Amino acid sequence: MSNRALLEVIALDAQDAVAAQAGGADRLELVTDMAADGLTPPLKTFAAIRAAVDIPLRVMLRAADGFAAGDVDGLVRDAEALRGEGAEEFVFGFLDETGGPDLVAVRAVASALAGCRWTFHRAIDRAASRDALRKELAGVPGLDTYLTAGSPLGVDDGLGVLVAEAGRRDEPGYEPRLLVGGGLALDHLPALLGAGIDAVHIGGASRPGGWSAPVSSAAVAEWRDALDA
Fold it and tell me: Against a cut of 0.90, is the pTM above it?
């Protein structure tokens, strides 16, 4: 088995996807509308990206900005439609009004995915208790990853939390992989890799021109090289 760290890159369209793969991305997170921090992409966008690249794709299931689930039936329909189009991996995560995981919504969407692998996204960074959330979600089918910065303020603030959680990977609720993203910078990598964290997620860092610019394969390659050094 390869010891290479996983590099996931946000892609908005096929152009982004091709550039990310050329730069060395291992996986893509597919979203639309970054002004709302990433929503469910249209079916035609998924289909175009799937046709353009051959690396794994994780597709966002999120209807609106924020971490409330909203229309759960709509999320389930989106999940089923994307699965019908060939999607096999997903990203979602919802909180209730207390700051705990919205188990009704999470379980409904996970059930619609019928065992597909999925990431619980940065809603964990807004949870009332990270530890309680992990334990409540333990055993939900398909959950294999948490996308987190360790803090709602970003990796700079959450680095200590991430390192501590990496050391708990044998405890119940801590088995899913840590995928670090959110204010992530290259100079965070030594501490993360040293703690045994082997997966990172970049969005703006892959676009030197900002979110209005496409993914730069050179920018992605810089991260690939840093992870492989």
Answer: yes
